[in-house]
Design goal:
By secondary structure, the chain is α/β, with parallel strands linked by helices. It is built from 11 helices and 19 strands. The strands form 4 sheets. Strands 1, 2, 10, 11, 12, 13 and 19 form a 7-stranded mixed β-sheet that branches. The protein has a 7-stranded mixed β-sheet with strand order 8-7-15-16-17-14-18. A 3-stranded antiparallel β-sheet has the order 5-9-6. Helix 1 links the parallel strand 1 and strand 2. Helix 1 runs parallel beside helix 11. The mean pLDDT is 95.
């Protein structure tokens, strides 16, 4: 074991949650070390870039909204105001052997008969399925909205907590496009954050455990490298976090372990524009099968290329069958696996009652030099991640 380095704050995880926390601590003059297990920063913000003509496509998160006030402030803090570009407004289509509009599977009379229940139903304690089956109609939910909502969160939506889904935000910034991205892709935001001199990022560092000490924590890595940290923040998924703190904080670890995680396998392809007859679209949602959604690059038009990211449930389809599903939707039989790009992501499934679990976790953290941030607190969106990091940065800075 090598001699340990000493740090005031070590953040484990270099995605939007860990790096937004690093930003707000560095903004307050604190130096932080960020440890990322992967080859690059990003996590669920995963932009694949091509040198020619600066073309890029998204393998993970793909959209920001002007209701994301805290994320907008984060971008402005990092001088990206001029790099925030509007996504072109294109349609969403369903796919069941052919493309169709979403109203093709909607029973309007059932919808009109069910919508008044919206005013008497409360979301708290209900799942997406139980709540929206009542207010949209059971058949409408089964035929359309179950798949539509699953595409939104890229995982089965039926058991997701209704009060954490499609949250209304009263923070709309009308001076920004309703939906936007960045001129070099979503990862441009993270690239800008790590340019700060107070933030040191080390990639390909896998942390295996945290050892609690009187003065903080010893962060042990798989390579034998160790870091002495007075404070540690976990910006990982709940399962990884649970494993890291199972000895140091067993009760907190148990709460994290209870959060289910969905595994996503994304496969994307970039094609010459002239080789694809498919109309320009924002999203395509297969009405059946293990592909949750297809996200296109069409919303930021390129004169020569198009790109499509297919998000599959991991482990259901073999690569060759994934490729066949992609060919069927794109209307081609000319794809090969070598020209595709892969990414693996894990997303938490936040079930009804999850806010109570968050309260329990926060109670256990009150007097600790341990901080938790991620997409398993108030929701999966980038805005929810940034909001949690702001909350934890204030807890740290106010001690």
């Amino acid at each position: 074991m090598t001699q340990s380095e000493q740090f005031e704050m070590v953040i484990i995880g270099g995605g939007i949650s860990g790096l937004s926390l690093a930003h707000y601590l560095s903004k307050a003059g604190r130096k932080v070390l960020v440890l990322e297990a992967g080859e690059k920063i990003g996590g669920c913000v995963n932009t694949t870039r091509f040198e020619e003509k600066e073309f890029w496509m998204e393998m993970g998160a793909h959209t920001c909204y002007n209701s994301y006030a805290q994320l907008i402030d984060l971008a402005l803090d990092n001088n990206l105001g001029e790099n925030m570009i509007a996504r072109e407004k294109l349609s969403l289509k369903l796919f069941n052997g052919e493309l169709k509009g979403i109203f093709s599977r909607l029973n309007l009379f059932q919808l009109l008969g069910s919508l008044p229940r919206m005013f008497s139903q409360k979301k708290e304690g209900q799942s997406v399925q139980s709540f929206y089956s009542k207010v949209l109609g059971k058949k409408n939910y089964a035929r359309l909205f179950s798949r539509l909502f699953s595409a939104v969160i890229v995982q089965p939506a039926d058991e997701y907590a209704a009060d954490l889904f499609l949250k209304r935000r009263n923070t709309r910034r009308k001076d920004f496009p309703k939906s936007f991205t960045f001129s070099h892709g979503m990862q441009q935001l993270l690239d800008a954050i790590v340019e700060n001199d107070n933030i040191e990022v080390r990639t390909q560092i896998k942390v295996k455990s945290l050892v609690r000490k009187e003065s903080g924590y010893l962060v042990e890595t798989s390579s034998g490298e160790c870091f002495d940290a007075k404070n540690v923040s976990l910006a990982t998924g709940p399962k990884v976090g649970a494993e890291l703190i199972k000895e140091a904080h067993p009760e907190l670890s148990s709460l994290l372990e209870e959060i289910p995680v969905q595994k996503i396998h994304s496969r994307a392809v970039k094609l010459e524009k002239t080789s694809v007859d498919l109309e320009r679209l924002a999203f395509v949602i297969p009405v059946e099968g293990p592909c949750y959604s297809v996200v296109t690059r069409d919303v930021v038009d390129d004169p020569q290329a198009r790109a499509f990211a297919f998000h599959f449930e991991q482990g259901v389809l073999e690569p060759e069958k994934q490729l066949k599903a992609m060919e069927k939707l794109l209307g081609t039989d000319q794809l090969n696996l070598d020209q595709t790009f892969e990414a693996y992501h894990r997303l938490p499934l936040l079930k009804p009652g999850h806010p109570h679990k968050v309260e329990q976790m926060d109670k256990l953290l009150e007097e600790e030099n341990l901080y938790l941030t991620g997409n398993y607190f108030d929701g999966l969106s980038l805005e929810d991640c940034v909001a949690r990091s702001i909350k934890e940065s204030k807890r740290y800075l106010n001690k």
